[in-house]
Design goal:
The chain is an alpha/beta fold. Helix 4 (about 100-110) packs across helix 5 (about 130-140), helix 5 crosses helix 6 (about 160-165) and helix 7 (about 185-200) crosses helix 8. It contains 9 helices and 9 strands. The chain has one domain (about 20-245): Alpha-Beta Barrel (TIM Barrel), CATH 3.20.20.370. Helix content is about 35%, strand content about 15%.
Length: about 270
């Protein structure tokens, strides 16, 4: 008892409140845009969480507007070039010049009304390219207001998080894909691992998809989660990511010139 009282007094002396020490978790539901029923079920999950909506999909606009009416954070689920296999429609590709990259990114963002940020759909090939990620994050930083970025981390070689920090925008990383393995048992174990990671490390961001088995597990487990605080993306980034600085590194660089623009690859 004496030790607990001493610990409380120390916390008060340091100005550390109970809320600040709460294990923090965030959830993103990816791949919305093609199916309104999937979106309706996802949006009925216990808040807070975020939805990542594919640009230019048949129901992109309607789902984004419904999410915003519900007070749910909306992300642009931005297609990017994969390391292997065909790219998704409207993807950013490594052989695009800077102007084409930025134009395609702007159109994607504008197709998802109310988006507060972006996360990558696929992207194992593109996010590993630092020069491309610099272009992408500069475009996000120049939006009004600037957009945040969540690195889905589809490759360990990703440069996206570093580029976002350099651009001065808010950024955080994904820790767990809840439904990387299919089936309710596997998803339940991954969900438990998400909660446990938050308890052990203080922070855990999970990504899931609007599949029936995933929704079934989340509907059952989220209300029973104990010992963690689920938060919106702005709060998560403040506690667990890198908050926006609004001060891109290239503005304070010793070199007065902007980084050189990339050019598209010559045709073979």
């Amino acid at each position: 008892m004496a030790l607990r009282r001493a610990g409380l007094l120390l916390s008060l002396a340091l100005g550390i409140g109970q809320a600040a020490a709460a294990p923090t978790a965030a959830l993103i539901i990816d791949d919305l845009g093609h199916n309104r029923e999937d979106a309706r079920r996802a949006l009925a999950l216990p808040p807070p969480f975020a939805v990542a909506i594919l640009p230019h999909a048949p129901h992109t606009d309607a789902i984004a507007r419904a999410a915003r009416r519900a007070g749910t954070d909306v992300l642009v689920h931005l297609p990017m070039e994969a390391e292997r296999g065909p790219a998704a429609p409207h993807a950013l590709l490594s052989d695009m010049d800077d102007a084409t990259l930025r134009s395609r990114l702007r159109r994607a963002v504008e197709s998802v009304p109310g988006a507060v940020g972006v996360n990558n759909h696929q992207g194992s090939g593109l996010t590993a390219r630092a020069s491309v990620m610099e272009v992408v994050m500069r475009e996000l930083a120049e939006r009004s207001p600037p957009l945040l970025f969540i690195d889905s981390r589809t490759t360990a070689a990703t440069e996206a998080e570093t580029a976002a920090r350099n651009a001065g925008i808010g950024v955080a990383r994904r820790h767990i894909f809840l439904d990387h393995r299919k089936g309710t048992d596997a998803i339940a174990r991954a969900t438990d691992a998400w909660f446990e990671r938050a308890r052990q490390t203080g922070c855990a961001l999970a990504i899931a998809h609007p599949r029936p088995d995933t929704m079934e597990v989340l509907e059952r487990k989220i209300p029973r989660a104990e010992g963690i605080e689920r938060v919106d993306l702005a709060t998560y980034i403040k506690r667990c990511g890198t908050p926006a600085t609004g001060d891109p590194k290239w503005r304070v660089s010793s070199s007065p010139s902007q980084p050189a623009a990339r050019k598209s690859k010559p045709s073979p």
